[in-house]
Specification:
Strand content: 5-15%
Number of helices: 5
Number of strands: 6
Order of helices and strands: HEEEEEHEHHH
Helix content: 40-55%
Mean pLDDT: 86
Low-confidence stretches: 28-39
Radius of gyration: 19 Å
Distance between the termini: 35 Å
């Protein structure tokens, strides 16, 4: 309930940051609620205190941006529709030697896959798989080059084809569609097509 107030307090202490994020608490039916460690590599710096700590990257579902710090870096890459947009932004911030912090006292819950009604779950799942593969290749190509991205993802391309054929053979239409979407997303990214797929 007090996350915004806590972020405000910490932001006044830090002064110079590109991103300040609250601590992410996730809803997970397997392990229950608990503090996550999904903040990349913890940075042991002199600015780390009992209230906040520096990290390499954060998840983009909750963050506070300092627009002045991002003027020469830019914001989210608009070519990316879903996945890796937060990692891409954080990588550009770190490359520019700007700071990313997490507030310990400001906390929030991210309810994954709750932006749409459950009746659209299957269609959303297809979209998620398509974009995960598209963005994986795009991100790696953007930051490391085409051949690095190809080396990083070619096994997934082959696996997607094999699993699509297997699940088609045993008449599992749900799984076969998912792996077809994974193949399609990755293939479209490899041949340089924009992120065009959208859930119906």
């Amino acid at each position: 309930d007090n996350a915004l107030d806590e972020l405000d307090k910490v932001s006044n202490k830090i002064k110079n940051f590109a991103i300040l994020a609250p601590t992410l608490i996730r809803s997970d039916s397997k392990v229950g609620f608990g503090l996550t460690t999904n903040y990349g590599s913890y940075k042991k710096t002199s600015t780390t205190t009992s209230d906040f700590f520096e990290v390499d990257y954060i998840q983009g579902c909750g963050l506070l941006l300092d627009k002045n710090e991002l003027k020469n870096i830019g914001f989210f890459d608009e070519n990316i529709f879903m996945f890796f947009d937060d990692i891409d932004l954080c990588k550009r911030i770190r490359n520019s030697e700007k700071k990313i912090y997490v507030s310990k006292k400001a906390q929030y819950i991210h309810l994954g896959a709750k932006a749409a009604n459950d009746k659209y779950f299957n269609e959303i799942e297809l979209s998620r798989n398509w974009h995960l593969m598209w963005s994986t290749f795009y991100f790696n190509k953007k930051h490391h080059g085409y051949f690095f991205a190809l080396k990083k993802t070619y096994k997934r391309l082959i696996t997607s084809i094999i699993k699509f054929l297997f699940f088609s053979f045993i008449f599992n239409s749900v799984k076969s569609k998912i792996y077809l979407m994974r193949f399609s997303g990755l293939y479209n990214s490899i041949i340089g097509k924009k992120s065009w797929y959208r859930a119906k």
